[in-house]
Specification:
This protein has helices spanning 5-17, 20-26, 31-45, 61-89, 101-118, 131-140, 201-212, 226-234, 244-250, 282-293, and strands at 50-53, 56-59, 93-99, 122-128, 146-149, 158-164, 167-171, 182-183, 193-196, 219-223, 240-243, 257-261, 269-274. It is of the alpha/beta class and 299 residues long. The protein folds into three domains: 5-89, Winged helix-like DNA-binding domain superfamily/Winged helix DNA-binding domain (Arc Repressor Mutant, subunit A), CATH 1.10.10; 95-162 and 269-298, 3-Layer(aba) Sandwich (D-Maltodextrin-Binding Protein, domain 2); 167-261, Periplasmic binding protein-like II (D-Maltodextrin-Binding Protein, domain 2), CATH 3.40.190.10. The strands form four sheets. A five-stranded mixed beta sheet has the order 4-3-5-13-6, sandwiched between helices. Helix 7 links the parallel strand 9 and strand 10. It holds the Pfam family HTH_1. InterPro entries: HTH-type_LysR_regulators, LysR_HTH_N, LysR_subst-bd, WH-like_DNA-bd_sf, WH_DNA-bd_sf. One of its GO terms (molecular function) is DNA binding.
Length: 299
């Protein structure tokens, strides 16, 4: 005999009613059919699940153990049904990935199309924020998964290496800093900058480093993306700090010089972070595995 979920539910109904007759009625089968099913379960495991009395039935020790497992299996059956329901009905599910500016513009566009095509019922929202804000959101539970810079403290979080993401200075070809091989941030702050708009997390991070040095950044222009910044820098307006990956992507299109930057804040990694990967919803665990397994595609 092969047990199915109906057998488990029948057993639980008999147990809760304390009566084979009432358990059969609750299961919508005849008393004879219920008795035969219970007997076959007992024969399969070579145990007695109930003791029969004139007033009804009571569980044996074996029956109590069987009941615990039957209840767990029925709960898991219900959870499985709920998990499969969106796929069966075509209902769309959604996830939110918190990420900094660099992850959003330079890395995720290379990975997300494949995942979305493989999971047509899924919607992914990218929420851009500064790494410190992402760390706080993860710690507070308002975010489940985030891509952050390794420069920031990830205490009480779990993290996995995702990609190297150093920052570089880009400057016009004839700029005074062009001949430098590498620079500290303080060596650049006397010059006019081209920056991202104020709401961009990367620009906020750069400004935070400048404030620690006691120097404000002098902006000649703020723009919404790295491409616009590279174009303006190539026209001689000012210097800018952008991810090295963006500079490599834009270098063939605009005339500017790259200069390496010293410091942990600039020579950073992108980390995939969560409070506890094992405690994430199944959909987030699956997405996390995809990002880590496919990170080579963005290196």
């Amino acid at each position: 005999m092969r047990l199915d979920f109906f057998d488990f539910q029948l057993f639980l109904n008999v147990m809760e009613c304390g009566s084979l007759t009432k358990g059969a009625e609750q299961s919508a089968i005849s008393l004879q059919a219920a008795s035969e099913r219970i007997k076959k379960i007992e024969q399969q495991f070579q145990v007695s699940l109930f003791t029969r009395h004139a007033s009804g039935v009571k569980l044996t020790l074996a029956g109590q153990s069987f009941a615990e497992h039957a209840q767990q299996l029925m709960q898991q059956s219900q959870q499985l049904e709920q998990a499969m329901l969106p796929f069966a009905t075509g209902t769309h599910s959604s996830m939110t990935l918190w990420c900094n500016s660099s992850a959003q513009s330079e890395y995720l566009p290379a990975l997300l199309p494949q995942y979305l095509m493989e999971n047509p019922q899924l919607q992914i929202e990218l929420k851009e924020a500064e790494s410190t804000d992402i760390v706080h959101a993860l710690q507070q539970g308002s975010a489940k998964l985030g891509l952050i810079s390794s420069f920031f403290d990830t205490q009480n979080l779990k993290s996995l290496a995702f990609a190297d993401d150093p920052l570089v200075l880009i400057c016009p070809i004839d700029h005074a800093l062009t001949h430098k091989q590498s620079l500290h941030l303080k060596d650049t702050l006397q010059y006019a900058f081209v920056g991202l708009m104020q709401y961009h997390s990367l620009q906020q991070s750069i400004e935070s480093q400048a404030k620690l040095l006691g120097f404000p950044i002098q902006y000649r222009l703020r723009l919404p993306n790295f491409s616009a910044m590279a174009q303006v820098v190539s026209n001689g307006v000012g210097i800018a700090i952008i991810p090295k990956r963006a500079a490599q992507r834009l270098g063939p299109h605009y005339a500017f010089q790259q200069v390496a930057l010293f410091g942990e804040w600039a020579n950073r990694q992108l980390l995939l972070a969560a409070k506890d990967f094992d405690q994430l919803p199944q959909s987030y665990q699956h997405f996390s595995q995809f990002l880590i397994q496919n990170k080579a595609h963005v290196l």
